Amino acid sequence: MWYLNMNAVVAMAAMVAALMLTRRWPANKRVLLLAFNLGFLYVFSEKLALFYAAYTLLNYIAYSFLCRVPSMRRMWFVLFIALNVAAVSVLRLFVMGELHHPLFEAVITLGLIYNVLKVIDALYFAYFIGRDGQCKLIDYANYVLFVPTFTSGPILKFRDFIADAKKPYAVDAAAFEMGIKRIILGMFKKIVLVAWMTSVFDHVMGRELHTHESLFLMIWFYALIYFDFSGYSDIAVGMGRLFGYTIPENFKKPFLSPTLTQYWRNWHATLGDWFRDHIFMFFSRRALTRVEGAGLSLLVMTLIGIWHGFTWPYIAWGVYHGLLLAGENLLQKTTVNKKKVSRAYYWFRIALTQAFVTSAIIVYGGAPETVLKVYRGLFHLPSF
Which residues, at least 6 apart from 27, have a Cβ–Cβ distance to it below 8 Å? Predict the structure, then answer.
């Protein structure tokens, strides 16, 4: 979101310059970053900044308490997570118009579905590491409020960010060049490709849809959403490197994934990793049966669908992908080793995986009316 606003881009460029000019100051990467994060959010929206200041402080208190509390740790752990999930759920109901209050403004929910995942990751760290996991408020606040990934990820891991925060600012010429190139690539995707592809999509959507047009829109939208989201991720990765922090990759050649299990490790990789680390792996400390693995896959994908939105298309999308992943688990088809199968079979599995994804990708289009129109068009044959 920030990266399409020139004032925001200039502000981040100024922050990079400030970090470079003060690189001999050991604490520059922490102190200047906190001042920048808070100042940036405050200029964007006073209510957003105040909300996140309170949200971050309350969660830091919970995090610190969980690091030190000697008894009933699991109860506190579950309670703090439940409170975060409940708060985000209530705020999303306000956005949907299901709840109303004169003090509510939608701007305070900006980035919240990503930031709550970071907060929960920190709680996991505190629960499993204990006193040794304690960190300072300045580093915790920078982790939650980190502007380059604030609105749309990639999702940062707490332990990795804190480890980066302890290192001195060390962006050399090679790292600077690499960061700038990633930013330019992302800008090209977002400003040039996505803008053009969106106009084509809207033009076709404005017509009466037939089978071939709906098929075109599903494939076209798949490419559009990839360039849109990967473009944002490219900019976030590049800008994060210039800030002195390593940002994880979100897209790892997802179109070459031969199974859906592998696909979800490559498409929006940080989201898939988060749910595996915090839900799937939490229940799989022992060897799982195929049925248990299938059930957890269905649960994880359904939760990812709900995380995207409290609407029936997203829930159906999550269940759909969950059932497919469950089937792969039950049939023991979760991976394909390229070296042990024929080339034809390998590419067939890639094509099959992409067909499964393409058939449901239009759900990301948002409005249920858009989704229904495209699917109805599939069964509307043109007359000759």
Answer: none
